[in-house]
């Protein structure tokens, strides 16, 4: 390796610029930004204002926060549903007057005042919901009208009844407890107030409802796309109506709480709250376009806005300055949100793909007649087709005890061809994703890796069961991606554990080409234990981990590393447990699935062949990086997967035979093969058939199932 290449390796392999794109794709980054803003805001004002963190000061601030947060949570639900509610301040003020009026003017008990405030919020929420949801009026204009009418009505009521409220002698211990008490009572008078406790309960319930319930999912779906939600069978009008009702009820509760705290209603009650609440929603990271956001973000936004507004007042700035700051904050947040939504994919396409330097080892020729162990014959050209023109993408094939043949298709189905002639076929199961690697357990159930979905099981009664979609999360890395992104091939150990590969943790199954261009070792070997349902990572740092096959000893397995053109052996049991070694390296082809052979050796598929041009490109990461940014994808340089073959190797990794289709008419590209009763059944992810090749001298009674489970085929 030259000095220049050493410098390239240092630059592209060890400087982690790929972390930028990695971080931007993570869900937690949406919460991290408002969280950082929250911490900065609290630290800035806490260090500037004397006594900011005193218990008495925090007690007063948190009471306001409780009431404000409840309003923000209600407004957030409306925004997530694709709407907007400018009337929250007016509803809040009217609910406040309803509670105060019932208690101080009409001398009603506290529970009646509470019901009056909630009923006020419910009525206005229903009005907004009916007009926007069922009448399909513009949310902005509709709630603006409600804001004006509600504020006018509140001002009239305050003028008419203000004197009676101020001179009333009504009192109640419950009223005072709700307004000024702590949930811990006299034991901790500066503890969390009733308003804070109510806000926390509502936020938790709203979070669970939005993330774990059908109505919450419907709200997010409607906010994301009303037309798509309608076409999916969601009752869009009712869902929109429900969001405004929830917002109105939240305003009603908050109005009751502030009524208890202040024991009065003034002209400034709720004034400007719609701006402050909307600012909190957006500053927290919720999208005004709907369908994207969370309750947690809303709560963080509420804390940011309240700390900022109260802090500015305590620093001596007037109300006008406060409103200006909120306006600027809202404008900046909306601008950033719109620009990020519009340009997110463009930014990620610029920074995500970060190729590394990799130098492939010298290899032997696979050309026919070259005299090397890898020299391909033309034997696969004699394979007879099964399901010609009926199949699309049979990546893997497998046979059961009754000689029936199974294959996955890119349409999300597992198709069964019935023995003995394989002329008749049926859809055995519908998975939904692209079934890749297949294996059959002792009970005849099929285990399959489904691209971008996970590990699944299909029993003899065709019942589909999800086994695993993610691994146990790591506590040592915030970048750990536990989700299975490209589960590829699987095999079953004698004790029932399922060993399978996740080819890459950076790309989904359909983006395998990007993984090959980047060349970063992000593949891993996993194990699923049916006893406790856990999925654990055994090996990582593999360059597109692919085929998995149990060795004949039942204590180890062979695993293909496609882009490195290597085959490894890993001992999961026995005296060598944990041992990992490379048994074949620097092959001229890219290995795929591996399966047992009847003579104690192993079959291995080559999905494609190495080329000098691509081997050279792997040593030019800068060129590959520019290629992905400047050229359309159909002009990129990819690994050659248009021709491949089948290779047989023994326990030591010695190549025994190499089969190919030199004319490219039957099976130019091979991703799997399975020996069964003297025949080799061949699959290919780009093929429209399954090949059936008669193996000379093979045991006509040997089956893979009997080799694994000790029965007769």
UniProtKB/TrEMBL annotation:
Broad class of the protein's primary localization: membrane
Segments forming domain Strictosidine synthase conserved region: 488-574
Cellular component terms per the entry's GO annotation: plasma membrane
Coiled coil spans: none
GO molecular function: transmembrane transporter activity
Membrane-spanning ranges: 32-53, 65-81, 88-106, 112-132, 139-159, 191-210, 241-264, 270-288, 295-317
Entry keyword set: Cell membrane, Membrane, Transmembrane, Transmembrane helix
Compartments in which it is found: Cell membrane
Membrane topology note: Multi-pass membrane protein
Domain of life: Bacteria
Protein name stated in the entry: ABC transporter permease
Organism: Hypericibacter terrae
